[in-house]
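Reply to dn_fold:

You asked what the input looked like. This is it:
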Amino acid sequence: MARTILRGTLALAPVTILVHYAFHPGEFLEFVLAAAALVPLAWLIGEATEQAAHHTGPGIGGFLNATFGNAPELIIALLAVNQENYEVVRGSLTGSVVGNLLLVLGFSLLFGVRGPLDRESSFVSLALVGFAVVMFLIPAIPGWHGDPERHAIAQLSIPVSIVLLLVYVAVTWFTLRRHRRLHVSDQPDEMRAWTFGTALLVLGLATVVTAVIAEILVGSLEVFAEDAHLSEFFVAAVIVAIVGNAAEHGGAVVVAARGQIKLAAEIALSSSAQVAVFLIPAVALLSWLINPLALSFRVVEIAALAGATLFTLVLLFPGRATRWRGGALIGAYAVVAAAFFVAGDR
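and this is what came back:
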């Protein structure tokens, strides 16, 4: 049912592009349409990536997942960098990590069944996020005093990003084979029906269309935030972060509802780790081709990342999934979202 709905809503992408270029509506409507259109596109990219991975083996498949699985967030971030809207970039990336840890995992546990979790895998993912938060302090603390966008902080972000990427590669090297085996074994036969060429073609087209939709989204974000009486930071950290991951988030909850709680938790936790130690440093390094991005996260962002990591670790320490733990995680996300709302823009 969910896959059928997502296939049907793929029509939102051409509709959004047509409305944008032919009718020039207000930015508020454009933002809503673009946000809605990104959800099925994110699902399609994920679907094509998984199909391609079945033909390439776990090594290249893992690379494809890391590269294209986060394509919507990466494109949104780089477009915002191009517009020098750095608060939107950092906010959307921070919100993605926190959203995976608290919101996605929370709903997965809430709608899933009671049962054991993979403690080793969970702790590895949480350790990666925790390590990333510690590394983020290096460029973040200088940004709390003076201009947070100054060139020196952007330069300081380079070695931090390189270290994080090296850690990501090292950990992935040791865990990817196990994770990929687990993931592939849980896929129905219909998920392995595409040819490699078809998967690459769909992946390429979906990524191009996503780039166009993301440009519309970023271009209308400022006016949408103003009309909705919300800060750009809140819109990026909560709304854009949820939209960029919506299809993947929904997939985790569906998997949990089907009784595969271990896999659902793996999706949520590994996604948060991937954004923290892969996507954020990748955006920071790629930004030097456009406008250098300083990883000068605000105090509220660092506090949200650290708090979400510690809170999730405490709840998952027993290694069991329960509905009350899911409710607690969702409640914690509501607190973080409220903090982002109160913080506003700099």
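Residues 2-343 form a domain with the A middle domain of Talin 1 fold (CATH 1.20.1420.30).
Hope that clears it up.
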